């Protein structure tokens, strides 16, 4: 049986997620030297990264619990999270931002991804803790 996550860990996970996302978005909103298409690029990378992180966490957890996950979806999930990191890195590398701004976006992105993974994990753990142990009862079939 899975243990329910502590309230402190659940709160810390939500805080990490919300601080990461809001910090990233507020940074984009206040970026005066960035064109709208650049802001859209970084916002899209953030949203795609959050989705990919949750997807990877779910795939890994499903496989550990014996729930079938297709190899193609598992591979696409890992490819997606790695792609978002590469896209963010390339974008920041070529951006005309101060190094401190580049670091800010990188760490806000990583905090958001970490928060998304832990919130997903906590949600899954809380649901698993609510369910009583499901025992498999063999069914006899008369032939």
TrEMBL record:
UniProt keyword terms in alphabetical order: Membrane, Transmembrane, Transmembrane helix
Transmembrane recorded as keyword: yes
Organism: Chitinophaga parva
GO cellular component terms, semicolon-separated: plasma membrane
Pfam families: YiaAB
Protein name stated in the entry: YiaAB two helix domain-containing protein
Keyword Membrane: yes
Cross-referenced InterPro entries: YiaA-like (IPR038972), YiaAB (IPR008024)
GO terms (BP aspect): DNA damage response
Transmembrane segments: 7-29, 41-60, 72-92, 104-120
PANTHER family xrefs: INNER MEMBRANE PROTEIN YIAA, INNER MEMBRANE PROTEIN YIAA-RELATED
All copies of domain YiaAB two helix, residue ranges: 9-62, 73-125
């Amino acid at each position: 049986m899975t243990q329910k996550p502590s309230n402190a860990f659940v709160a810390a996970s939500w805080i990490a997620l919300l601080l990461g996302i809001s910090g990233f978005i507020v940074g984009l909103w206040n970026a005066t030297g960035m064109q709208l298409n650049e802001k859209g690029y970084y916002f899209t990378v953030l949203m795609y990264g959050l989705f990919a992180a949750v997807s990877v966490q779910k795939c890994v957890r499903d496989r550990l619990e014996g729930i079938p996950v297709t190899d193609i979806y598992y591979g696409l999930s890992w490819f997606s999270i790695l792609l978002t990191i590469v896209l963010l890195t390339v974008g920041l590398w070529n951006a005309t931002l101060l190094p401190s701004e580049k670091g800010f976006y990188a760490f806000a992105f990583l905090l958001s991804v970490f928060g998304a993974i832990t919130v997903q994990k906590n949600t899954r753990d809380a649901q698993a803790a609510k369910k009583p142990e499901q025992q498999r009862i063999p069914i006899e079939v008369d032939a």
